[in-house]
Amino acid sequence: MELVLETDKVKFMFELYGKADIIRYFRDLFNKRGRVLEIGAQLGDVTGWLSQNFKAVDCIESGINNAAALYGRVKKAKNVEVYAADEFETSFGEGKYSLVTAIGNLGNFANGFGKTAHKRTVDFLRNVCVSLTEDGILFISTQNKMALKYLSGCYDSKERLQFNALMDYPVKTAAVFGRNELEEILKEAGFNSIQFYHTYSDGMFPISIYRECEEIYKLNPDIFYPKHVYDYYLRQNFFLEPLAVLSLYKEKMVHYFSNSFVVLCSKSRNVNLKTNWIFAKWSLGEIKSSFQNEVKILPASDGGFFVEKSFINTSQTEYEDEKIRVSLKSGSYIHGKPLVFEAFKAFLADDNYEKLTAVLNEIKSELIKLSSGKDAEGYEWVDGKYYDFTFWNLIRHGGKLVYIDSKWGFKCKIPVDLIIWRNLFYFNHRCGDYKALSNAEIFSVLKAMFPGITPERVKFVVKYCDDLLSFIIPKH
Predict the structure, then answer these.
(1) Is 2-271 a CATH 3.40.50.150 domain?
(2) What is the pLDDT of residues 292-303, one digit of tens each?
(3) Angle at the Cα of 110 (from 109 to 111), degrees rounded to 5?
(4) In terms of CB atoms within 10 Å, which of 39, 135, 277, 406 comes out highest?
């Protein structure tokens, strides 16, 4: 989704759903009065945000065409300079910058002749370290060599080679590093304070991020695998990633296999590199700007956690029309067992979906307890706020199912079979080519739960989803 930035100094377009979206979550840690060096600025995905938030920005870009295009975009900006130069061969000066960014391009500087990728990257980052003020920060966003997406079947994003990174680059390409090796490289380069953050689905299409810390494993495991996923253009599916995440969570190893890192580094041990939140996610995509929202999880004073929800572009907490209601409610974090992992295991069981049907019947039973009557065809009604009473929004806590997110809903009553259909359809969205339910299988499970259901009835309940999507997605 493109956003037009306008100030008295700069006007140009950049992708909101991408690089700039990551860095803005760290803005409170930066010295806004300082000078910024943007290494590998490309076409200015982040430049507009930097120019609006910092005193001065120097952009360096080795691609002459990219540099020319970027200059054309920012030439009216009095606080932005663009340099076409080889980032690896350029001296950035000494003690000049309060912030240096290297977003999505660290692997490019590791690729060269005469030195190993490790040594070449150390040399490059040592040059960067020298250029920082004593309390300056280096901001890195980079892929993880040991990313779970590579293990499960994704190809390397640029060269489209499978397992090349995992096998330590038998085919010489741009190289990225695993978590421990990258930390070692940064220490060798002169950085004394290093804080890792981890993004999903990856650094190019981020939808969530968490801070590496002990507290993160006190949260429920579903935070490591948000319900919306990016469909990589080239991949296979060797296993179901959510269940692999669950196993890694139990071993407290998820952060070693995150798809991408954000790393904040400083020469000084006294610089704060920790955000006040430990987890953040955002809903942007193609929804209307008024509905774009973010969720942050913060440590609470009582030793627990607090969930802070807000719309990004307004201070409102609720929207509605004659049928749809969108509402955000902050509150205490609820610990428990996410039903989604139980549902995934039931989905994969070789039992003609009997276990899956049992989980769905439990959801159905809970909804019937909340019923306020029946529709003309005899199907139970529930309040429209239960539209998202689904696997991914239900937690087993205190011996019962707890509904944790009712953001999207209807002002009118809705039928229970609609909610069950949404639960079933979910698997086709999340499981990719690994395993999917055919329309016939979905109908078969629905038939077992609602013996009188017909294809026409299914079309009727799907219409509710269409109505909601037409409300929240802009017309093109």
Answers:
(1) yes
(2) 999 999 999 999
(3) 90
(4) 39
Q: Which helix (H) or strand (E) holds 440?
A: helix 439-449
Q: Where are the domains of the chain?
A: 2-271, 337-472
CA distance 364 to 449: 9
Question: What pLDDT is recorded for position 227?
Answer: 55
Cβ contacts of residue 189 below 8 Å, gap of 6+? Answer: 122, 125, 126, 128, 129
3-state helix, strand, coil in the chain (%, to 5): 35, 25, 40
What pLDDT score was predicted for residue 432?
A: 63
The mean pLDDT value for 366-379 works out to: 94
Mean pLDDT along residues 33-45: 92
10 pLDDT tier (thresholds 50, 70, 90): very low
The whole-angstrom separation of Cα 276 and Cα 297 is 9
137-170 residue pLDDT tens: 999 999 999 999 889 888 876 667 888 888 888 8
Q: Before 201, cis peptide (omega within 30)?
A: yes
What pLDDT does residue 286 have?
Answer: 74
CA–centroid distance for 151 within its chain: 19
Pick from 117, 225, 229: nearest CA to 165: 117
Count H helices and E strands in the chain, helices first: 13, 22
Beta strands in 156-259 (DSSP E): 193-200, 208-211
**What Å distances lie between residue 204 and 15, 18, 83, 104, CA to CA?**
11, 6, 24, 7
Q: Is 195 helix (H, G, I), strand (E, B) or coil?
A: strand
Closest by alpha carbon to 106, among 338, 265, 297? Answer: 265
What burial class does residue 89 get, using C-beta atoms within 10 Å of its C-beta: 0-12 exposed, 13-18 middle, 19+ buried? Answer: exposed
Summarize pLDDT for 61-94 with one digit per residue, the tens.
Answer: 999 999 999 999 998 899 999 999 988 889 999 9
**Per-residue pLDDT band at 289 (split at 50, 70, 90):** confident
Phi/psi of residue 188, nearest 5 degrees: -60, -30
Written as one letter, the residue type at 369 is K
Buried b (16+ CB within 10 A) or exposed e, 96-116: bbbbbbbbbbbbbbbebeeee
In terms of Cβ atoms closer than 10 Å to its own Cβ (0-12, 13-18, 19+), residue 126 is middle
Burial level of 233, CB count in 10 A (0-12/13-18/19+)? exposed
Which amino acid is residue 37, in one-letter code?
A: L
Q: Provide the mean pLDDT of the chain.
A: 88
